[in-house]
Structure formats: C-alpha cells, structure tokens
Amino acid sequence: MVGIKLVNVGKVYTVEKEQIKVLDGINLDIHDNKITVILGRSGCGKTTLLRLVAGLEKLDQGEIQETDVKKKAYVFQEDRLMPWLNVKKNITFGINDKDIDEDKINEIIETVGLKKFYSAYPNQLSGGMKQRVSIARAFAYEPDFIMMDEPFSALDYFTREQMQKELLKIHNKRNCPILFVTHSIDEALTLGDKIVVLEKGRVKSQYEIDEKNKTRDLLSDKYLNLKKQIMNDLKVL
Fold first, then answer.
1. pTM
2. Residue 42 contacts by C-beta under 8 Å, 6 or more apart in sequence?
3. What are phi and psi of 35, to 5 degrees?
4. How many Å apart are CA 58 and CA 224, to the nearest integer?
5. DSSP 8-state assignment for residue 124
6. What is the pLDDT along the chain (237 residues), one digit of tens a residue?
7. Which of 50, 145, 136 is closest to 95 using CA atoms?
C-alpha cells in the first residue's frame, strides 16, 4: 500500500535577515489511490509543502515517512515542454527507450484526447493541450505518487473544467495517489477525495469525500454546504 505521512513538518525561510515560518507543525496522511487536495490562499504554504514532499526542498522540522514510494512525478504550474520534441517524445522524455511500452503510451495519449496531435509540436498546441501533455508525461513515467502544483490555474474556465475531467479519467484508470495543490474551492470539490485546508502554514481543517460517482454536482445541497464550511474556514464569507 503506497502512502506518505507528514509528521510535525515545519519550514522556515530567511528573508532580509528575518525568519518567516512558512509551515508550522503539519501532520497529514496521504491515502493510497486517492486524490488529496491542498487548498488555501496564496502564500499559505501550499507549494512549499508540495516541494518538501517531492524532495525539492529540505525540512527544517519533523519528518516525511514514505511507504512503497519508489517513483514520483511532479506536474508544475507551467507545462515545461521541450519545444523541439513532438507530443509523443515529450511524453516519453526521461524514459529509457527499452522501457517504453508503445501500447501504454498510445493509450495515455488517447485518454488525454491528443490522438490526432501525436506528432504535433508545442507551438502547435493550445494551453490546455500542453497541460494534457504534461499530465500524460507524468502518468507515462508510471510513478507510485504524483504531485501537481496548480496545473490548471492559467487556463480559462471551460478548458480548466475539461482538464479536470481528463485528470479524473486518467486517475480512474491508473489508480495512482495524487497530491494536488489549488486555491480554487470548486476545483478542490471536483477532484478531491480528501481536502486539506491550509492557513498561515497550518492545517485549518480536513474533509473526506466518500463519493463513488466522480461526476459531482457542485450545486447540490451536499456540496453547497461543504463549500460554505470551507469558505468559513478561509474566512471568505
């Protein structure tokens, strides 16, 4: 069973000789085969938490315990595609040629809706298509754990909604645990099996969503009430 546990995790940055505590005593269990969403305002420590889990930064306090996590993948806010490589080669970038399973790669390309753009280059793709390539590349790596840092934040509403559906479709097929960062409450409610509200570097609240049907009606009483609770947590009511 793949899992990650944060125990009393803390991080401090020094800015102009002043120490700023970005994360303060974070305790969190990230479940196997689930999408865990970290939600909060800009500057609350979301991306720092993600980077610590990814190993891109060092802890100042606490520990991160991993169970059966051998390979991780990270999807950034920007697509970070290689402009000289086509869609397929961008997706398989970093994978040894001998380890590339053509059938699986073709399946992933089809799942993200890029079958007709197999040989296209990044400058021929829209913003949403580029993000699909980034997500496909993460899954093609066949990681045990995926981290996503607001990957849809630069997209328009309609493209963002479509990308959320694409992500859920891939996740349902691959069953890989995902740690997803966002500042959008609606996005958190659409994607999250678990929503963790972060405020000023601390866990303000956590919500578990037991929903077998991945197509959620955010206008239902259940989700409107949950949204109100989260808005209250973030003091936006």
1. 0.89
2. 183
3. -100, 115
4. 38
5. G
6. 668 999 999 999 888 888 889 999 999 998 778 999 999 988 889 999 999 999 999 999 999 998 888 889 999 888 889 999 999 999 998 888 788 888 888 888 888 888 899 899 999 998 888 988 998 898 888 888 999 999 888 788 888 888 888 888 888 887 889 999 999 999 999 999 999 999 999 999 999 998 766 678 999 999 999 999 999 998 865
7. 136
